[in-house]
Amino acid sequence: MQTDAWLNQDDDFTPGRVLFRSERTFDGPRIDVLFKPVVAIQTGMVYDGLVIRCATPEERSRIVADAGESARRSRVHILENSDGRTDYVISAAVGWATDNEDSGAPSSLAFFFGATDPARILPTEPS
Q1: Partners of 95 in the β-ladder
Q2: Structure confidence by residue, pLDDT tens digits, 26-69
Q3: Cα 127 from Cα 120, distance rounded (Å)
Q4: Spacing of C-alpha 118 from chain mean position
Q5: Has this prediction a pTM greater than 0.70?
Q6: Contact residues for 105 (Cβ-Cβ < 8 A; gap 6+)
Q7: Rounded distance, CA 77 to CA 92, Å?
Q8: Domain ranges in the chain?
Q9: What is d(CA 104, CA 120) in angstroms, rounded to the nearest whole number?
Q10: Would 107 disulfide with which of 32, 62, 115, 120, CB 3.0-4.6 Å?
């Protein structure tokens, strides 16, 4: 089972491809998602049946037009809720990690500093 991933290459982001999905209604592995660096964001407070995917070309055009010029060089990640609501995060990369820690324990991603692990340094701009 894959426990973490960083997606920051153009080949990793195919429009319409589902990158992550979790419907945890039981005690089990905790999943943390980190977007960085974030340029613009529109999110809800609760997600039930979350799907994270890349924006289609049409969605990207509309969202970037609303977000402004600074968003043009970043990726648009769509967050879909099971009730049909869609939100977005505009960032250069998204990563996630799973663990079996208590839900109140700090995330393993909270202490991630890109410069401390050369194998995991993320680009500041998409390639």
Answers
A1: 6, 34
A2: 567 777 788 877 888 888 877 877 888 999 999 999 999 999 88
A3: 16
A4: 21
A5: no
A6: none
A7: 10
A8: 4-22+31-98
A9: 26
A10: 32
